[in-house]
Write a structure and sequence with these properties.
The structure holds three protein chains of three kinds.
Chain A: E1 4-13, E2 16-26, E3 31-35, H1 42-49, E4 57-62, E5 65-66, H2 72-78, E6 80-82, H3 95-102, H4 111-116, H5 119-139, H6 154-166, E7 172-176, H7 184-199, E8 203-207, H8 211-217, E9 220-225, E10 228-233, H9 235-240, H10 242-248, H11 254-258
Parallel strand pairs in A: 3-8, 3-9, 6-7, 7-8
Antiparallel strand pairs in A: 1-2, 1-4, 4-5, 9-10
Helix pairs in contact in A: 3-5, 3-6, 5-6
Chain B: H1 2-30, H2 37-57, H3 65-92, H4 101-122, E1 127-128, E2 138-140, E3 143-145, H5 147-169, H6 171-181, H7 183-188, H8 193-219, E4 221-222, H9 226-241, H10 246-266, H11 272-286
Helix pairs in contact in B: 1-5, 1-8, 1-9, 1-10, 2-3, 2-4, 2-8, 2-9, 3-8, 5-6, 5-8, 6-8, 9-10, 9-11, 10-11
Chain C: H1 6-12, H2 14-33, H3 44-65, H4 70-91, H5 94-107, H6 114-139, H7 148-165, H8 169-191, H9 196-216, H10 218-221, E1 234-235, E2 238-239, H11 243-265, H12 268-278, H13 280-285, H14 290-316, H15 326-339, H16 344-360, H17 368-382, H18 399-410
Antiparallel strand pairs in C: 1-2
Classes of the chains: A alpha/beta, B mainly alpha, C mainly alpha.
Chain lengths: 259, 300, 417
């Protein structure tokens, strides 16, 4: 059974079809890249999967269970987590707290627990904090846990988003342009990080514009254009696909971007 | 009885509509509930009295009271417009891009400040509004439309028509519509967004100023507190019609006026003010986008 | 680009800018402040306004000349004071501070007269209210402008149950809190789905509806006349009657409130609220059930208003709708905003300031709301986090324990490059 299976997914805003009859499967332990020109519907697809925007039609199955119609928090609880293209950190919270919020759905303490703070709750909090610190080290943000999230430089904010998304113990991680705005060294470190994320048993589906990165890291690529899937396959196959070259022509060819 | 209630309702409704326009225009562009808008309306009413006082002190006499009224309205529009622009510049513009809560609290602060400023400067007691209409009005199906009522309705219709022309036929109107759709995009194509926002506050506040004068004439008494309830009702009207939607605000205002008049006439006048709130809550629950508004979808 | 107009070049220079701005404000205040019958038509008043604005402008200029934009500098100044207070409280063992604070709260009033004790009791009521509202506004970021309605629910619950049914204060105290919470949740269910600014106006409307109902439902609430002769609390044969009795009673309630609100703040729930306040979409994507979190905030916020209401009714032994106007809501909100949204210490400071300062400056009583309104704007523009900014920490444990858990993580088997 594939980890994520999207069947004939469509979403229209008014008359505009933002995504149109998209089929997509992601197997466990894969790294799948989702590419396409601006406005191709990539982020919209993420929004549908994570429940932020309900699709007009079609189905989203996660481990065989339907995600369609679930709220974002329910999707997160199932084990699908994400980052945002336009970084959406909790700016008025510390770095550590941001990650701890990511673990919210894995905890149970309620009002009584918060007020009376029994042993179990303290243990839960300590466990979460330890996990958050470990994740911060994992993404390369050690020693920065007490800073405000808004104080971090851009690249660090992207990494913090990844740590936050991982705190909910996801099986599937959706990364929306994680390398956006990063310099080459940061991008290389990020590629390394994504490999390590996979080693932890987390499947990664990522949107990316930096072709060098997405080609280098993905097992498989899916190409969207104007809401339609126009190609799918290994990076080599996609690069040679005339439909893909056509979609990118007029802007820059893929060769130019990888070059 | 029914016809009379309808007339009263339409009169009040057209005033609500004028005030609601200010809410809706501002909301359409910067997505802020301008709590101070009701106070602008109150300022308009005061400006009317003050101008009238000035005219009589200076012994300027006019062939008709209509000319005095015109001067009062122009002064109120100028004054309220200036206040609107100043408030935006001072209390809202620095907060653009801050959290959603900050401009709301700031707006509330402005509202309270203005209320108390007027109370201190003009005294807490009711002020009588000059009687400028001697007209008897006309009889209609056994009910009476007073001259003031006719004047209010006619002025409102005129103002709304002028606004429609301004929004659809002029350059600044075009810029306003563009900014309402997408502020970032508008500034990219060279629209001075700050100026558009100022213009929006100017126009909305000027309309509220006119509304203030008309209500002052209608009830004959004003005080520093009238902006509060009128503000909430006009906001309800804006929501009822679909916030951000200009024809919606007009429709919402008229509807609210009618509902209130009928409710007060047939159900209970003590709970008159509750009707507006009840409508607000019902609309927000069942049709938050209002009668003419589009669905508000979240942007990610 | 066309050549800049004269007005624009003028307004960009500091001094002409100040002059023009001050004249502008003078002009705006002129019609409202002038008096045709006064000598010089009362023109000195708008001139005074102009002078005030010019002073403020010059001060700002002076500050900005000495480095950094004015707003930032002022903010830094206030921030360093708030930071110093916080630093101080962090240096010393917290428990020592708590003991000293509680001890002085217990002992100091013994030396005060009835009038001062009454003021302190009022501070206590407002601290309770403001801390409750702080949950809703400061932590969860939901603007509730009808908070006083829940206060009224608490007060009328005791007023009615005491005079009609004969229930005692201690029986009604939890009941009033519970009822207020239920009201909060009932109001919350339909409106919390809406965007924040709608919520503000609906809660405002709700507050008015409650007040109007209290005013008009004569058969139950006795309308504007209010309810008289509400029983004083009794405990083991002792009847609370003198101001100091009530003071100690509210002190206990305040301590309970501080304890609970602080615990909530430093918990998973408090974290969820703050996250939701910062970014709803991201919070939901991280697994926070927004509806549940908001209802919780609304309900728990209303609880304290209910509690304070019951106490208020017992203290005054008389309640009427007049005590529950929109302005009461605004004042409580002002306490939260000025003190520091989300910060328990800040809110306590805000509440104390806003009760005590007007008492100390009786001659300015008329200007009270004017100043509050202006302060809200200035605060939002210059320092939106309030006098004492909230400081959030990772976990509610001391720094020592943090080190421990950090080292535990180092040795954890999951360690990766």
């Amino acid at each position: 059974m594939p980890l994520l299976e999207i069947r004939k997914l469509s979403l229209s805003f008014g008359g505009l079809r933002a995504i149109d009859m998209i089929d997509l499967t992601v197997e466990a332990d894969e790294i799948v890249g989702l590419i396409g020109p601006n406005g191709a519907g990539k982020t919209t697809l993420f929004n549908c999967v994570t429940g932020i925007v309900p699709p007009t039609s079609g189905e989203i199955l996660y481990r065989g269970e339907s995600l369609t119609g679930l709220r974002p928090d329910q999707v997160a609880a199932k084990g699908v987590s994400r980052t945002f293209q336009n970084i959406r950190l909790f700016r008025e919270m510390t770095v550590l707290e941001n990650v701890m919020v990511g673990g919210h759905c894995r905890m149970r303490a309620g009002v009584a627990g918060a007020i009376f703070r029994p042993k179990a709750v303290i243990k839960e909090e300590e466990g979460l904090a330890a996990k958050a610190l470990e994740l911060l080290r994992f993404v390369g943000l050690e020693q920065k846990e007490d800073l405000w999230a808004r104080q971090l430089p851009y690249g660090d904010q992207r990494r913090l988003e990844i740590a936050r998304a991982m705190a909910g113990d996801p099986s599937l991680l959706l990364l929306d342009e994680p390398a956006c705005g990063m310099n080459p060294q940061e991008t290389n470190a990020l590629m390394e990080l994504i490999h390590l994320i996979r080693k932890r048993g987390i499947t990664v589906l990522l949107i990316e514009h930096q072709m060098k990165m997405v080609m280098g890291i993905s097992d498989r690529l899916v190409v969207l254009d104007h809401g339609i899937k126009i190609a799918e396959g290994t990076p080599e196959a996609v690069r040679a696909d005339p439909a893909v070259i056509g979609a990118y022509l007029g802007k820059e060819s893929i060769g130019a971007q990888t070059g | 009885m029914l016809v009379q209630q309808l007339i009263n309702g339409l009169t009040l409704g057209s005033v609500y509509a004028l005030i609601a326009l200010g809410y809706t225009m501002v909301y359409g562009i910067i997505e802020l509930i301008n709590f101070a808008h009701g106070e602008i309306y109150m300022l308009g009413a005061y400006m009317g009295i003050i101008t009238f006082g000035l005219l009589t002190t200076l012994h300027l006499t006019f062939p008709t009271s209509g000319a005095a009224l015109l001067i009062m309205m122009v002064m109120a529009m100028l004054f309220c417009g200036a206040c609107g622009i100043t408030i935006e510049r001072l209390a809202y513009r620095p907060l653009r891009g801050a959290s959603r809560l900050a401009p709301l609290i700031s707006a509330l602060g402005v509202s309270i400040f203005l209320q108390n400023f007027v109370m201190l400067a003009q005294g807490p007691r009711d002020k009588g509004f000059p009687h400028l209409f001697a007209g008897e009005g006309i009889d209609l199906f056994g009910s009476r439309i007073s001259a003031i009522q006719m004047f209010i309705m006619a002025t409102s219709v005129l103002m709304m028509a002028a606004l429609q022309l301004l929004v659809h036929r002029t350059k600044i109107g075009k810029a306003m519509r563009a900014t309402a759709q997408d502020m970032q995009m508008a500034s990219l194509v060279g629209i001075d967004v700050d100026r558009v926002i100022s213009a929006t506050f100017l126009i909305g506040s000027a309309l509220a100023g006119v509304a203030g004068i008309m209500v002052g004439m209608y009830y004959g008494l004003i005080n520093f507190f009238i902006g509060y309830i009128a503000g909430i009702k006009a906001f309800t009207a804006a929501v009822l019609g679909g916030i951000g939607n200009i024809p919606g605000a007009m429709l919402g205002g008229l509807l609210l006026g009618l509902i209130e008049a009928l409710g007060a006439g047939y159900i209970s006048s003590e709970y008159k003010d509750v009707f507006a709130f009840a409508i607000l809550v019902l609309v927000l629950i069942f049709r938050p986008s209002g009668l003419l508004g589009k669905d508000i979808s979240r942007r990610v | 680009m066309p050549t800049p107009r004269l007005s624009i070049t003028l307004i960009q220079r500091p001094f002409p800018r100040i002059v023009l701005t001050s004249l502008w404000f003078g002009l705006l205040s002129l019609p409202l402040m002038m008096e045709l019958k006064a000598p010089f038509f009362g023109l000195e008043r708008p001139l005074l306004v102009s002078a005030g604005v010019a002073m403020a402008g010059l001060m700002r200029l002076a500050v900005s000349q000495r480095g950094g934009p004015g707003a930032e500098r002022v903010q830094r100044m206030v921030g360093s004071i708030g930071g110093a207070v916080r630093h101080l409280t962090e240096q010393i063992d917290r428990r020592v501070i708590y003991v000293v604070a509680v001890a002085s709260a217990v002992v100091i009033p013994l030396s005060l007269n009835r009038y001062h004790i009454d003021i302190l009791t009022q501070v206590g009521i407002y601290v309770t209210l403001a801390l409750g509202l702080n949950i809703v506004v400061g932590l969860a970021g939901l603007l509730d402008l009808g908070y006083v309605a829940f206060y009224a629910v608490g007060a009328y619950t005791y007023g009615l149950l005491s005079t009609r049914v004969g229930l005692s204060f201690w029986e009604v105290l939890p009941l009033g809190a519970l009822l207020a919470a239920i009201f909060g949740i009932l109001l919350g269910i339909p409106v919390l789905r809406l965007r924040g600014d709608y919520l503000a106006i609906v809660t405002l409307g709700f507050g008015e509806m409650i007040r109007i109902t209290l005013n008009n439902w004569d058969s139950v609430t006795r309308g504007p006349n209010g309810i008289l002769g509400i029983a004083r609390p009794r405990l083991l044969g002792f009847t609370f009657s003198s101001p100091i009795d009530y003071y100690y009673l509210i002190l206990v309630i305040v301590l309970l409130t501080i304890f609970v609100v602080d615990r909530l703040n430093q918990s998973r729930i408090g974290r969820a609220w703050t996250a939701m306040r910062d970014d709803e979409v991201a919070a939901e994507a991280m697994g926070i059930n927004l509806m549940k979190a908001k209802l919780l905030a609304f309900g728990l916020g209303a609880t304290w208003a209910g509690l304070a209401g019951v106490f208020f009714a017992a203290k005054m032994t008389f309640i009427s709708p007049e005590s529950f106007t929109f302005f009461e809501s605004v004042i409580i909100l002002c306490m939260v905003v000025l003190g520091g949204m989300g910060s328990v210490l800040g809110v306590i400071l805000g509440a104390s300031m806003l009760v005590i300062l007007p008492e100390m400056m009786r001659q300015f009583a008329l200007y009270r709301m004017l100043i509050f309104g202006g302060a809200m704007v200035v605060m939002m523009v210059l320092r939106p986090q309030g006098l004492i900014a909230s400081s959030r920490r990772g976990i509610a444990l001391g720094p020592k324990d943090r080190q421990g858990s950090a080292s535990a993580a180092v040795t954890s088997p999951q360690k990766m490059g």
